[in-house]
Amino acid sequence: MKTSAVWCLSLTVLAMALSMSADMQAAKKKAKSEQQSLWPDGTPMDAWFSNTAKVDPDTLGNKYLITSYGVVMGSPEVQTHKIQKAIDRCAQDGGGVIVVPQGTVVTGALFFPQGTHLHVTEGATLKGSDRIKDYPIMTTRIEGETCKYFCALINADGVDGFTITGKGTIDGNGLPYWQEFWTRRQWNPQCTNKDAQRPRLTYISNSKNVTIQDVHLMNSPFWTNHVYKSDHVRYIDCYIFAPTENIFPPEPKRGAPSSDAIDIDACTDVLVHGCYMHVNDDAVVLKGGKGTWADKDTTNGPCERILIEDCTYGKVHGCLTLGSESLHDRNVILRRCHVANATRVLWLKMRPDTPQHYEYVSIEDLTGQTGSFLVVRPWTQFFKPQQRDDMPLSQCNNIYIKGIKMKCRNFFDVGTSDKYKLQDFSFTDCEIEDQRNAFNTTTIANTVVKNLKINGEIIK
Fold first, then answer.
1. Which backbone phi and psi does 151 adopt, to 5 degrees?
2. 229, 301 in Cβ contact below 8 A?
3. What is the pLDDT of residues 131-141, one digit of tens each?
4. Do the Cβ atoms of 184 and 195 come closer than 8 Å?
């Protein structure tokens, strides 16, 4: 009886201990979760950002198979009108899902109104026309300006809940456009993107609650994804690719010009999760306007609450770039990503002709290799300085770099200027291999260093 009682008591104590241990672990996990759910300025991150659940297209209404509207898969014909007919019928019926079946179909610009969605079946390719006339000129947003330009292949404006789903491919068929661009550059080295007109792959504007998931977004003639004046936009598990070389035989090192992966333009609450990005320009880019008076233009705006996480970068010019057309970027996190071959990781482009403010940006838990890790330099490509007596001084502040383990050619590529002010940067728990070894705590005012190891040496 005594032995049994002791045994029961021991089991009770053990159960209590296990329960307490489980409670402690749960408490630690909750604390860690709460800690991770803060923006760099300390404000709480909305629970929306932790929702990476996929949209089920079966819940989005009736399906409209494009072949039911005269589309012939595999035909070289540009079948824009037939596909748009299916989209318009879907909208008239109250909404649903436009389905692209297996095979390849060529199209020009498509426009998705409220209630319509796009599903690209695995094995299907929605291929863009190589004729610029198949992309109508309209008032749109390009390079930090609202102006007339060619629309994108996939367009959605003023919609709530738009989705692109499926494991198929949206292919911009960019090769002819890229080759024309580089040919023009041979004749005119100052040739701009507006001189060699090219469509984007997707353009989402003035919208909310948008999800683009699983799809392969490839070979865009210009920017791959452009989202403007929108909120609560998710890019989940997308494969984003454009070639970085061998597209222009006279100069084999040339790749797809200006093929940015995701351009976020005057938006709030954007999540980029689990994506693969390999393009011949920057990967995730924050934009919002440019020019001496850009802060007075209501078509411009800030980017706030941007989260990029669990992504893989192939070859890109910059993993996260603020500029070259940015005004105010705040509360931006890049975390838990692997970098295979980036030219830069965090690139803060400072335009002397534009009032800019980049603040509360956190780069966390990155691995891999890069050319330069942190780059802060003036950006003067195609800029137009004007006289403004009350021109605000541009600044970067509260930039946090922590938990980085990377090989770099130049970890600290930072230049000072009387056109901008840098302060309150911190470097915490980083282990860096740095060929240039140019880190300097005096370059940026109020630099904080904690457990920063460069080439095996602790920096103090």
1. -75, 175
2. yes
3. 999 999 999 99
4. yes
